[in-house]
Structure formats: C-alpha cells, structure tokens
Write a sequence for this structure.
C-alpha cells in the first residue's frame, strides 16, 4: 500500500522528461560537430562535409562510427581506473547541468500540469555552478591518469583557466541575481517574460558572462588545454577511440548547455519575443509550450553560432594574456559591474532617495 | 645604419590605443570580416560530379587508337618507346597472320604493349613520335589502383573501344580532341 500511495505519474513524467533531455542534448551535440565543420568551412570559403547524406547530414554518424571502430589504447603506465573514468566524468558533468534548466512552460496532460523542467529547485543557478566547477575534474583526471607530461601540463592549464574564469563568471552573475532576487531559473525566466530581457539591464555582465563561458567550454580563443602547437594535442593526447570521442563530445555538450544557460539568464529563456505568452496559452494550449521550446532552441542555436563564429575568427590567446585578461581585466570589471548594479538596485528599492 | 636598398619598413611599435586594448571592438571588426566570407560564393568544384574545364590539349591517360574500321593502328615500331624520357613504354612486335586483317591495319602489330603509369610523366612525346597516329593522350585522368602491378597498363587497358561496336564509348574515350 505504501507503494501505491506513491505519485507514480510524477516518476514516469520525470523519467520521460529526463530521457528526452538527454537524448536531445546528445543529438544536438552531435549536430553541433556537423555545424561546427560547416561554419568553419563557410567562413574559410569552403563548403565543408557534403558527401554523407544531404548536405553531409549523416557526417556525425559516420564520425561516431569511425570512433567506435578505432582501436582502444590504454597506456601501460597510466592509472587505468582513472584513465577510463576521466571521459565519463567529463560527459557526466556536462550532462548533469541540464537538470535544472526550464525548457519551456508547462503542458496540460490528463488534467495534470507538467512543467517542462526536470527539477525546479530554488537554488538552480548555484547547482549549475556547482556542477560546472566539477567539470574541471574530467580534464584534470584524464590529463593526470595518462601519465604523460604534455597531458598533465594541458590539464593544469585547463584547470587553472577554468577556475580563474569561474570567478569572473560568478561575479557577473551576482550582479544579475541582485536584479532578479532569485536563484531559481524558472523564476528568472518568468521575470523576463514581459520582454524586459536581462541583457538590456546587464550588458556588461552579459559580455563578461559570454567571455567566461567561452573559457569554461575550452573554446578558441581560450582553448589553451588543446594548444596543439605547444602541447602536441592537449589533455586527451593518450586517448583513442570513443574515449577521445567522449572528451570532444563533452565539449560540445558543454557548449550547448552554456548557450542554454546564457539564453535562460540573459535572453529571456523560453520567452517568445513580442508575444504575450500567457495569452498564447489560452489560445493554443499545449502547442504554446512547444512553441516556447522552439524559441528557446532558436536562441540557443544563435548562441552556438556566435560561439563558432568567434572560434573561427579569433586566434588563440597566449597563456599569460589569458591570465591577464581573466584576473586583471574581467574580475575588476565584474566587481565594478556588481557594485554599480548594487547601488542602482538599492536606489531603486528606496524609490530613488539617497 | 643606412640600408642598402632603402626598402626597409620600420615595424610599427606604437602602443595600443584604448579601443584596441579592450579587444572587443577589434574582435567585432574581425567577426564582420569572417561573416562576409560566410556568405560569399564558394569557389569549390565538387569533383566527381563537376569537373574543371580542360584545355583541348590536356594530357591524360594514354589511348591506343584504332582506324575507322576498328583495326589497331599500332605497328610496334618502337618510336614511342625511344622517345619516352621516362622509359615507361615497352612493347613486343608480332606478325599479322592470314585472316587477321580485320584486327590489325598493317602487317606488323604490337602483341604486347605496356605503359607503366607510375613512371610516365605525361609529357606527350610518344604522341608526337608516333608516325601512325596510334597513341595519344586522352582527357581521362586520376587512375586509382590497389597495387603497383596494376599500374602497368596492358593493351586491354589502353586500347580504345571499337568505333563500330561501341560508338558511344569510342566517342567518350576520344574526348574533345580533333582526330584525323
């Protein structure tokens, strides 16, 4: 009887949602690799992969197949357990973040309201930060377990880079959280649904967040852990087969997730621009929720395109430049932004009386 | 020091301006350049489907020619082998028997004719040396094979299709080339 009093519908609903989110983020990451190659090619006046399927649509499948077919090499001198765990950890931390993201409004199914979010916890953005900072472990463990000097150096670089950019990212977010007054991602989105996107109130914060997100995802101009010219290949040098694929894949999942978070925090999340969403729910019902998911995806794809566009425009920073920019540039800027926002928010709270 | 050529250009070492120091504006300018390239027409030629236009004197793989009745023109005189700077051509002559007049044009013919395509430099001197107009370089190119031995082209690989039996293939092998 104890089992029956359980809310089975909730479990089923969440299980379906989780599997959809995981599959969707994997598929999107897969097509990000295709998109990246296409964008790179177009920017370099080429046409990119176009042989497998229409416009090269099956290229990611072919790449995945190739990676699975390759011989799996585990170096003798490596720490085997950690060596295998590294890519899994990178993938795990990349996927875990998606748990708190609101993908859309809510569906009405059989008289129940099903929110399109796996877990609406009230510390959503803190959870995201906690998981993202764990992402260092995938890089670090992989680089260390390979027992290769270059891998280790690359991993150290990656770790120090991620940690130093997380600071500026956190500071830029504090300014945002002062405006929203909540940590729950769904509430943040709902506050923006009037069309007052946070990017209009926090343009500097947004730029800092964007730069730090690039650094967090290890993408060019900040792909120091993968600097081929100095480190052969980077922290995944000893990896082969799908373990290497997992590392590369985790990068794309990370990119997807950070674009989703960027859209959620600054671009209004699943809010449909110029339209009253609540009104839309009255007319279209469940279809409005799907439209919201569609618009969120549109924003995310725009973000991903900007990431790729930056990648194929800007050359890689030198390590000292990277650290200078992070510690001497972004952190003071983020601090100044935070203080100014705090002053303005306090003034507004006091009805503009000093 | 006075330079010898007066073409020395001093390196511009003036410090970065404020706008350059904050990077963002310069990066935005760079991104504008790349997005222009994004929408530019691509010069790629999708090779197997599209091919580049060749000149009519393009020198591709060799063809052993036939006359209009489908008889082999080669008489195995060996002038092409002599002319070949890469020494890629070997041949063996044989005498035409009674009843073979529909196969070979003259009394002597090449029983074996081999060109090593790995040695050949596609200079076309064999074509110029041939008095019988029997060998020429076609517009076919990029052969692919799995072994070195397969790159030694035998008579079967080289002979043009019979114009009476396979006029289409014959025309294709002939290419745009003006033939006598």
């Amino acid at each position: 009887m104890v089992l029956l009093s359980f809310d089975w519908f909730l479990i089923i609903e969440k299980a379906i949602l989780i599997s959809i989110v995981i599959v969707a983020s994997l598929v999107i990451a897969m097509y990000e690799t295709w998109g990246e190659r296409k964008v790179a090619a177009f920017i370099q006046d080429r046409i990119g992969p176009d042989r497998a399927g229409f416009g090269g649509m099956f290229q990611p499948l072919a790449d995945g197949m190739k990676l699975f077919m390759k011989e799996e090499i585990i170096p003798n001198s490596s720490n085997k357990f950690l060596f295998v765990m590294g890519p899994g950890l990178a993938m795990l931390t990349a996927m875990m973040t998606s748990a708190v993201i609101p993908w859309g409004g809510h569906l009405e199914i059989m008289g129940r309201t099903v929110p399109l979010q796996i877990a609406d916890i009230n510390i959503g953005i803190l959870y995201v930060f906690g998981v993202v900072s764990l992402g260092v472990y995938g890089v670090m463990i992989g680089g260390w377990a390979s027992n290769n000097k270059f891998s280790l150096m690359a991993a150290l670089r990656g770790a120090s880079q991620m940690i130093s950019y997380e600071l500026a990212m956190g500071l830029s977010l504090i300014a945002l959280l002062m405006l929203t007054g909540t940590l729950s991602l769904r509430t943040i989105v709902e506050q923006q649904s009037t069309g007052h996107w946070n990017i209009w109130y926090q343009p500097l914060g947004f730029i800092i967040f964007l730069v730090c997100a690039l650094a967090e995802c290890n993408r060019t101009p900040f792909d120091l852990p993968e600097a081929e010219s100095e480190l052969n290949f980077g922290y995944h040098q000893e990896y082969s087969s799908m373990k290497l694929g997992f590392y590369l894949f985790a990068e794309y999942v990370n990119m997807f997730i950070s674009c989703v978070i960027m859209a959620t925090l600054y671009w209004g999340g699943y809010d449909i621009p110029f339209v009253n969403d609540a009104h839309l729910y009255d007319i279209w019902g469940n279809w409005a929720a799907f439209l919201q998911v569609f618009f969120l995806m549109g924003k995310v794809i725009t973000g991903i395109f900007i990431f790729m566009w930056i990648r194929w425009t800007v050359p890689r920073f030198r390590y000292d430049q990277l650290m200078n920019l992070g510690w001497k540039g972004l952190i003071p800027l983020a601090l100044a932004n935070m203080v100014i926002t705090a002053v303005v928010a306090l003034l507004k709270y006091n009805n503009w009386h000093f | 020091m006075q330079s010898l050529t007066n073409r020395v250009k001093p390196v511009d070492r003036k410090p970065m301006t404020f706008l350059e120091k904050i990077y963002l504006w310069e990066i935005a300018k760079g991104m504008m350049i790349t997005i222009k390239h994004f929408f530019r027409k691509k010069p790629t030629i999708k090779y197997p489907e599209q091919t580049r236009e060749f000149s009519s004197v393009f020198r591709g793989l060799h063809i052993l020619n036939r006359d209009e009745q489908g008889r082999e023109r080669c008489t195995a005189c060996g002038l092409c082998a002599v002319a070949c700077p890469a020494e890629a051509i070997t041949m063996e002559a044989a005498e035409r028997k009674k009843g073979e007049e529909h196969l070979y044009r003259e009394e002597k013919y090449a029983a074996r004719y081999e060109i090593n395509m790995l040695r050949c430099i596609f200079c076309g001197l064999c074509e110029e040396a041939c008095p019988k107009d029997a060998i020429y370089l076609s517009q076919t190119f990029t052969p692919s094979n799995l072994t070195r031995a397969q790159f030694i082209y035998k008579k079967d690989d080289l002979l043009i299709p019979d114009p009476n039996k396979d006029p289409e293939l014959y025309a294709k092998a002939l290419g745009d080339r003006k033939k006598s």
